[in-house]
Write a structure and sequence with these properties.
The chain is mostly helical. It has a domain of 190 residues. It is 75% helix and 0% strand.
Length: 273
């Protein structure tokens, strides 16, 4: 058991480092095709490397690790929990359009497909793999003896997820950095909640992908960063998403307590009174 935890922790750190740094592919790849930024080819190639490494770990080193790549629970989870994420994603896309207008770039279709869709498929799979599938489960196992271990794991992994996005906004105004951390932390709470409520990793992957492609407007502008008006719209929306997710988690915890109490023998309930 301990060996499995250490190997899972090692894989988590390795994937996080490769994801944030882009190493090794960003060190030697410089592919130029039409108007697509070369960095995207490097990052997507790195996703493949990360997938190979993860496959080796899960196939030979920690085969007992249950990630939740299954069909069970997906449809029910989508019906119960997808709507808030969809609304947040749509509002985010509108906020970006408002902040970036007027658009000053006319991209090729290939640029939009690669940078605005395919790249984000890789982001969703890889980030959910090591943040929820590995880190969250790892923390949950460490906190197994605590009554609220799952909630603790979701909150901690979400905070790390939020802080990890600082690297993408370094050098930008403090408002941008702070807002980015807050909104990605809230997003992490949502992904963690729906993951643990369904035990299905595909659900947070799909919702992560949907929310990410709402950044598609950036394919049509040369502007970098975030306009203040976009941040003013996005921040309260994600605070709502985080609050909604925490509410589901605490209700979940109360329901578990009620179930545990109702299943105790009558003699135990009499003593508790």
């Amino acid at each position: 058991m301990m060996k499995s935890l250490w190997l899972a922790a090692l894989l988590t750190v390795l994937l996080a480092f490769m994801d944030i740094s882009g190493i090794p592919c960003t060190l030697f790849m410089n592919v130029e095709i039409l108007d697509i930024e070369p960095i995207y080819w490097s990052l997507m190639a790195n996703f493949i490397n990360m997938g190979i490494i993860a496959t080796i770990f899960f196939r030979f080193l920690i085969p007992e690790w249950n990630l939740g790549f299954r069909i069970t629970g997906f449809r029910e989870g989508l019906k119960k929990y997808a709507l808030p994420g969809v609304l947040v994603g749509v509002i985010t896309g509108i906020a970006f359009c408002i902040g970036l207008y007027p658009f000053d770039q006319n991209p090729t279709v290939l640029k939009v497909v690669i940078e605005g869709i395919i790249y984000y498929i890789g982001v969703a799979i890889i980030e959910e793999l090591y943040v929820r599938g590995l880190m969250l489960n790892l923390i949950e196992k460490v906190c197994a003896k605590k009554k609220n271990g799952t909630t603790i794991a979701i909150i901690i992994s979400s905070c790390v997820f939020g802080l990890g996005h600082i690297f993408g906004v370094l050098g930008q105004p403090i408002l941008v950095i702070a807002t980015k951390v807050v909104w990605t932390t809230a997003m992490g709470l949502y992904f963690g909640m729906i993951y643990k409520k369904t035990n299905n990793l595909w659900l947070p992957i799909i919702m992560h992908f949907f929310i990410n492609i709402c950044a598609l407007p950036y394919c049509f502008t040369t502007l970098q960063g975030y306009a203040d008006i976009s941040l003013y719209i996005i921040l309260p929306v994600y605070l709502f998403l985080g609050w909604y997710s925490l509410g589901i988690m605490f209700k979940w915890r109360k329901d578990e307590k009620k179930i545990a109490s109702s299943t105790k023998p009558d003699c135990c309930r009499i003593k508790e009174r």
